[in-house]
Amino acid sequence: MTRPGRALLITGTSTDVGKTIVTAALACVAGESASGVAVCKPAQTGVEPGEPGDLATVAHLAGVVDVVECARYPEPLAPETAAMRAGLAPLDLWTVVGAVTDLVSTHRLTLVEGAGGVLVRLAPDLTALDVADAVGAEAVVVVQAGLGALNHAELTVEALRARGIRPAGLVIGSWPRDPDLAMRCNRVDLPRLTGVPVVGVIPEGVGELEPDQFRAAAPTWFDPDFVADLSSRSAPDNIAAVQPIEGVHA
Question: How does residue 85 score in pLDDT terms, banded at 50, 70 and 90?
Fold first, then answer.
């Protein structure tokens, strides 16, 4: 029996911290070819049917072909609220589990991009913590650079650990050319206070690069040891217990 691949949750300390660009960058560096990497977006908000969402950005920048969006709601709100206001069904955990499990079975690495932070409601009784727990994923936490980063990062890491989800690393989602004092201090203090290493620093504005430029530069934004681990490790043992669920794919 072929060992399944690995699932990795890409979550943030808040909204607009750079999760989509980090997801695209990780997809670039995770392997020799995009065919080894897939991306799942459980809930996309703020876009109408047929409009490009976050997965379109990831696919454009990283060249990832296999992307799956489980639910979409038009207003730019938390998924639970957006679904309720649109009169649409809320996202179901097993829809996400089924989608991720199928991707994990055929790809070495499946990136699962969350919505906002770990406790943002994807549905009335569903958060990114539940998704990561259900599919046996570790988590990469995307953090802001400036004031507030330390508190938000510590709270997020604490929430992950309380659920038994390992934080695999912190990534600063947007690092300016001229960082201020708080940013420079945070870069030192984040690993000290959370106990989680900063494994990546994404330069501000790289989402505007041409895809070939983005793919060429992406490896320079991450710690080489983290990249080697990301590229070589398979799933933790508990992922094997997750079985595909028929009839739940979006």
Answer: very high
